[in-house]
Write a structure and sequence with these properties.
- The protein is α+β, with helices and mostly antiparallel strands and 82 residues long.
- The protein is built from 3 helices and 3 strands.
- Helix content is 37%, strand content 24%.
- The protein has a 3-stranded antiparallel beta sheet, covered by helices on one side.
Length: 82
């Protein structure tokens, strides 16, 4: 089985999770910022991703976008997609 060096799912995990969720007949993933901590110039954001019918998952990142990507990536891995 051929594997590309960087699967598109890892380059753009939010798109990959969206496509996977729709392919499963589920609603689009929902991202919720649960909070941020640390100094204003270097905050760490905590984001939860929820897909209908699955256990929500949280992740952290240096920006809201990074945290959302980390959460999407973690869900794809947990669900065995990547």
């Amino acid at each position: 089985e051929f594997r590309s060096p960087a699967p598109p799912a890892l380059k753009n995990p939010k798109s990959a999770l969206q496509e996977w969720a729709l392919g499963q007949g589920r609603a689009l993933p929902r991202y919720t910022v649960l909070g941020s901590k640390g100094p204003d110039h270097a905050p760490t954001f905590t984001v939860e991703v929820a897909v209908d019918g699955l256990e929500p998952l949280t992740a952290e990142g240096r920006s809201r976008q990074d945290a959302e990507k980390a959460a999407a990536s973690a869900m794809l891995k947990r669900e065995g997609v990547v």
